[in-house]
Specification:
alpha/beta, Rossmann fold, Four Helix Bundle (Hemerythrin (Met), subunit A), 3 domains, 4-stranded antiparallel sheet, 16 helices, 44% helix, RNA-binding
Length: 469
RNA sequence: GGCUAGGUGGCAGAGUGGUUAUGCAACGGCCUGCAAAGCCGGGGACGUCGGUUCGAUUCCGAUCCUAGCCUCCA
């Protein structure tokens, strides 16, 4: 595998060479569990799922994705709902797992919780104080940014500039306005842990530093997340970990995905445009959502709309059509992805290009008809799709599964028998009447050389191309 | 104000110093009882202004526009 990845630290594509090919370590910042996951949470989960699936074709991989379950927003959500903090967290963890499963995201090897690593965080903070990289003041512990000369390198900011645009007032307990919190005091009603600096709770950044170290070691190969995390989160993680480890490299490759926008605007609660996964799942399949997320290169912004989802649904229809037409002859023989497909992913995970290869394969399968070559191409298509976490469904079921309420599969089959009889008798008006009746119930039919097949028409059919504006 | 991405055909979205992206939509043809699906084919694009070059959508400069970050954020 000759994978190249764009490293945020160096701002260029680099050949990916793991420190230890037998154990590639990947750490991705997971969700803060204060609300249900939205499409923006799904993007890094899907992207890094694909990266890990692809890495596993050449390496042994250990993949950790944390759960941040200590956070002021969780506390706020709990207060608003009038339920215990732990309950809010547990609910949202469960929702996250459900939604990620629906999107075909495989569970990470390790899923550490912040709440289970507090004592290690206290230890790391104490060490940082001891080595002069942090200081305690007024029940807070702060990281001394001036003690780490490389601070700002990841996000390409110098400390002087940072202050110019600072939006917050500088707290009195900070030596330097850029210093950030490692530990802060808790009030009695808030979650807190005893520490040398009093009862309190960890700052956000220290969580990831500690969990990465605990589960993957001092130096990890790949550290990922959304590009909004570059500053301050990853900048601070890097500072903490490097200083805590006596200068050892923290992450060798920093990979960041672009944002999902809605109508060219950032999703936010204040704009009221947050697109939740479980709502999307009522409009389209999880696989279609996944495909939509892979349709743009991971570093590019992705503009979400209903049209994007419907497009993806149709793309899958096309791919599954070609698989369906050979599936009765496929015995499930293992196949390998096409070389072109691999090349696309090797080039900084170019999923749009990889998808184009999938469509090329689908056309070739359709063209090849019943030949042996068609079957082997179809297997190649399926094997390629598997790396993207796509095309894993049974092709026949893909088209017939769905809302049984309107019309059950048995009823459809019965009507098709009637229609075939009518056609055989040359009674085309009756045949067309049945076809119309089926269509009104959301079932489209296709007469082919092997008989008549049917599929449920997706629910978004007929809607306008674009929404709003 | 500082920093970072972008601006590609009707839409989404790759890529490239000269040669087909791909999907959807639309159009013509084949197939079909008619459709659908599929196959074949053609049309249609690189924000603006300059520069480099035999040749630029691609490199360089300027400019306009959009989005994101600047201590809550995936």
């Amino acid at each position: 595998m000759s994978l190249s990845l764009y490293n945020t630290l160096t701002r260029r594509k680099e050949a990916f060479l793991p420190a230890d090919p037998k154990r590639v370590s990947v750490y991705v910042c997971g969700p803060t569990v204060y609300s249900r996951p939205h499409i923006g949470n799904a993007r890094p989960a899907v992207i890094f799922d694909v990266l890990v699936r692809f890495l596993r074709t050449g390496y042994s991989v250990v993949y950790a994705r944390n759960i941040t379950d200590i956070d002021d927003k969780i506390n706020a959500a709990a207060e608003e709902a009038g339920v215990p903090i732990a309950e809010i967290a547990a609910e949202n963890v469960s929702a996250y797992h459900d939604d990620m499963h629906a999107l075909g995201v495989l569970p990470p090897d390790i899923e550490p919780y912040a709440t289970e690593h507090v004592s290690e965080m206290i230890a790391m903070i104490a060490g940082l104080i001891e080595s002069g990289h942090a200081y305690a003041k007024d029940a807070h512990v702060l990281f001394r940014v001036g003690s780490y000369p490389d601070y700002g390198q990841l996000s390409r900011r110098d400390r002087g500039q940072l202050l110019d645009g600072a939006r917050v007032e500088v707290a009195a307990y900070k030596e330097d306005p850029g210093d950030f919190v490692l530990w802060k005091p808790s009030t009695p009603e808030l979650p807190g842990w005893d520490s040398p600096w009093g009862r309190g709770r960890p700052g956000w950044h220290i969580e990831c530093s500690v969990m990465a170290e605990q589960h993957l070691g001092r130096t990890i190969d790949i550290h990922g997340g959304g590009n909004d995390l570059i500053f301050p989160h990853h900048e601070n993680e890097r500072a903490q970990s490097t200083c805590a480890h006596g200068g050892e490299i923290f992450a060798r490759y920093w990979i960041h995905n672009g944002f999902v926008n809605v109508h060219s605007e950032k999703m936010s609660k204040s704009l009221g445009n947050v697109v939740l996964i479980h709502e999307l799942l009522e409009q389209g399949s999880g696989e279609a959502i996944r495909l939509a997320l892979l349709g743009a290169h991971y570093r590019q912004p992705l503009d979400w709309s209903d049209a994007v989802l419907r497009d993806s649904q149709r793309k899958l229809d096309r791919l599954y059509t070609s698989l369906r037409d050979v599936s009765d002859r496929d015995d499930g023989t293992q196949a390998t992805p096409s070389a072109e497909f691999i090349e696309a992913l090797e080039d900084d995970l170019n999923t749009p290009k990889a998808l184009a290869v999938l469509f090329d394969l689908a056309r070739k399968v359709n063209r090849a008809g019943d030949s042996e070559r068609g079957l082997s191409l179809a297997r190649q298509l399926r094997a390629s799709g598997e790396i993207l976490g796509l095309l894993g469904a049974d092709p026949a079921e893909w088209f017939t599964a769905g809302d049984e309420a309107a019309l059950g599969a048995d009823e459809v089959e019965a009507l098709l028998v009637q229609r075939t009889a009518a056609r055989d008798n040359g009674n085309y008006s009756e045949a067309d009447r049945i076809r119309t009746e089926l269509k009104d119930s959301g079932v489209a039919i296709e007469d082919g050389p092997k008989g008549t097949s049917w599929r449920r028409i997706d629910q978004m059919e007929g809607e306008d191309q674009t929404r709003g504006r």
